Amino acid sequence: MASQTRSILSLLTIPLLLSLLAASAQAGSIAVYWGQNGNEGTLADTCATGNYKYVMLAFLTTFGNGQTPVLNLAGHCDPSSGTCTGLTSDIQSCQSKGIKVILSLGGASGSYQLTSTSDAQSVADYLWNNYLGGSSSSRPLGSAVLDGIDFDIESGSSNYYGDLAKSLKQYSSQVYLTAAPQCPYPDSYLGPALQTGLFDYVWVQFYNNAPCQYSSGDITNLVNSWNTWTSSFQVTNIFLGIPASTDAAGSGYIPPNDLTSKVLPAIQGSSKYGGIMLWNRYYDLENNYSAQVKGSV
């Protein structure tokens, strides 16, 4: 009888374990951009919240076309005077918590453009030696080794970003590549690069684009766009990129209750669902957005 009871319990346990594994597989994370507002707190404080799994340092605003690369972290530090090397301990503190710290290239403003395959290789060399696993006498963030490179390309042309991705992965397959395309598919600037299949995480910006974003309780356009993105190219993890407050973007803000009750249930069934991306830490700090939704992501 005892043996039979154990067998029955085992049979009952299997579906429970399978359901728990399925739930775990669909559990999402939160990514956030940090660096564009001196009032958003330190990088170490950002990571200490426990709300984020990925933090993008925004932005390397100048690179390519023979230009000297420029890091712009707003009011946090001045790379030209060497004060950004003080972020070394913050970066290492984040990484000790299992948080990936990633340098974001581009942004909505800046001077960046890749003009050839060799130009892309030169930028990759610079990134490897100054921010990743290489060596240089002038590392802007000091000795800290970042986990990867984010492509937030919003101007110029789409040419050669795929070459940049390939060059970075050739240095090390352990370099995380992420991207932040806008939600109209395919993205004007990152479309060809994303087709390489080399990107580990893609946080699509579902805001400032009416045809593919949430609007006044209507999730139809957003879900249709989400389905297009998740079915159109090879990537394991796609994140829902959204503003962290009404002030963070011109449109596309999703109230926390609508995110948790309407939007997330509609997209979490995708095997490519990775979580959400928030723009940005300053607005999240103001609105307490990530803390309100973390349990449902």
UniProtKB/TrEMBL annotation:
Catalytic activity: Random endo-hydrolysis of N-acetyl-beta-D-glucosaminide (1->4)-beta-linkages in chitin and chitodextrins
Keywords: Carbohydrate metabolism, Chitin degradation, Disulfide bond, Glycosidase, Hydrolase, Polysaccharide degradation, Secreted, Signal
Family: Belongs to the glycosyl hydrolase 18 family. Chitinase class II subfamily.
EC code(s) of this entry: 3.2.1.14
Residues making up the signal peptide according to the UniProt record: 1-27
One term of GO molecular function: endochitinase activity
Pfam families, A to Z: Glyco_hydro_18
Keyword Signal set for record: yes
Cross-referenced Gene3D superfamilies: Glycosidases
Cellular-component GO terms for this entry: extracellular region
Membrane spanning stretches: none
EC primary class: hydrolase
Record PROSITE patterns: GH18_1, GH18_2
Segments forming domain GH18: 28-297
Protein known as: chitinase
BP-aspect Gene Ontology terms: chitin catabolic process; polysaccharide catabolic process
The keyword Signal is assigned to this record: yes
Subcellular location: Secreted
